[in-house]
Structures are given as structure tokens and as C-alpha cells.
Amino acid sequence: MSLPLLASIEIEQPVDADLPAFDGHFPGAPVLPGAMLLALVLRSVARQPAWAHRVGAGPWVPQVKFLAAVGPGQMLHIRLDDSARAIAFSVRCGDVVVARGQIQAIP
Predict the structure, then answer these.
(1) Are 103 and 61 in contact (CB under 8 A)?
(2) Strands ordered across the beta sheet of 75-82
């Protein structure tokens, strides 16, 4: 049984300057670790019931590329696009794409 495709959505996610992830990463020039950026994307998916249902309880990330650094206090724009097999995501800070990839249910 295939699920109907979901309409694309965009979610704004502020990056709290006080996140512990910035501690020591990197002193004098803080950068959000890629794992934390991916966690914010997965949290955005989990907060949307239809999208969370699409990937199930244990989402798999078969592909992700980190393209630019994210600093404290920035605003992320997370775009989710559905396809028959995966959710494609892209993350922007302003006009700069900082990450993109795919999320899907564990095969």
C-alpha cells in the first residue's frame, strides 16, 4: 500500500545561541555540528504527524550533505518535499543552502 504524497512544507527553526552543541565547536568561531543540524531536521519531521508517519518510528538518513556552516542565533528554513520513497530536505540560512539530503523509513 503506497501513501499519498504530501504537499511540500517549510519550517522556520531558530538556532539558539546557548545550545550546548556550540561549546568547544569551535572556540572563537562557533559552528553548529552537522549531527545537531540533522537532529533539528528530524525533529521538524517528527513534529508534523503526516510526515512522521511517512518515515516511521526509526527514520533512516541514506544521504546528507553539509554545504555551509551555521552559527549561533541564525534562522534556519527547513523545506520538506515528499516523493514516493523518501522525504527530500533542504536547509537554508537566508539564501544560502547549508544542508540537503533524504530521510526515509528503514527498508
Answers:
(1) yes
(2) 9-14, 75-82, 87-93, 96-105, 59-66
Instruction: pLDDT tens for the chain, 107 residues: list them.
Output: 567 789 899 999 999 999 999 988 888 899 999 999 999 999 999 999 999 999 999 899 999 999 999 999 999 999 999 987 899 999 999 999 999 999 999 87
Identity (one letter) of the amino acid at 37?
L
To the question of pTM greater than 0.70 for the whole model, the response is yes
Cell numbers that stand for 22 in this block:
556550540
Residue 52's φ and ψ, nearest 5 degrees, are -60, -40
Residue holding cell 531558530?
A: 14
One CATH from 3.30.70.260, 3.40.980.10, 3.30.450.20, 3.10.129.10 for 9-105: 3.10.129.10
Query: How many other C-beta atoms lie within 10 A of the C-beta of residue 66?
Result: 17
